[in-house]
Amino acid sequence: METNKNYSRLTAAEVMHMINKAIGIFDSGLGGLTAAREIMEIMPGEDIVYFGDTGRVPYGSKSKEAINKYARQDARFLKKMGVKIIVAACGTVSSVAPDLSDELGLPYTGVVNPTCFTAVNATKNGKIGVIGTAATINSHSYKRRIQEKHPEFEVYEQHCQLFVSFVENGLVDPDDELVRLMVKRYMTPLKESGVDTLILGCTHFPLLAEAIQREMGDGVTLIDSGKETAIYTKKILSEKGLLRTEPNKGEARFYVSDTPADFEKFAGMFLKKSSLENHVEHINIEEY
Ligand code: DGL
Q1: Known catalytic residue: 160?
Q2: Is the bond preceding 58 in cis, omega lying within 30 degrees of 0?
Q3: pLDDT value for 1
Q4: Is residue 116 annotated as a catalytic residue, yes or no?
């Protein structure tokens, strides 16, 4: 449940002040780094503040109340860090929690809308698969969004909560027997339904893209929610005149709610770097 409100109420001076602020991104853990990586790639001059709620991951198996509370705390932390936009780089938050833009007084986006937009343009046979966490699939957020505009499309949903634990523990090698068996087990019903497009509706899942692609076959187009959200974030910033125009190195700061060690260990894998050079800081998210 996400929309993006109009911030044309900002004065020219306020816009100038906001341009140089960072892009705030949050997720339950490491998954949102798939969106962060794409944001860094397509907007290299932008600064980034990333928060991974590693002390409370996974979100996908939690209640709606818990997810709402966590989303608000995560977003409030980023607001306090002085960001110009908040990206809920988490399929679960985007599916379950409301749009927080009014509450925060900041542009805000989740991953569902941009991902659905790309998926409906990609399908040729009108059969789209969606995989996500249990909370995401139970909310039917992607299915509702797609069928709002295209009631004729068939949408097949499958929750893959177990994928999150695999990814958070670095188990993503498509040649690993355990990974292969797990992916096969969850993908079989979707394969049988004949989908030609598959939404990776959780930002953790692009790490398993190769294993999923092998199982589904080359004829199926995978849609990466992290990537689509990065493209959409750029569009919002550009429309609001909030994209940086002057040269900037593009710094990234990372914060987590558990010990930084595990995050540091696996973040490089998500960012497609050999290691994470940046400092990772622990914060107490319950204070927000
Ligand atoms: N990365 C998240 C998502 O996109 C959350 C995974 C989880 O915490 O269960 O849904």
Answers
A1: no
A2: yes
A3: 47
A4: no
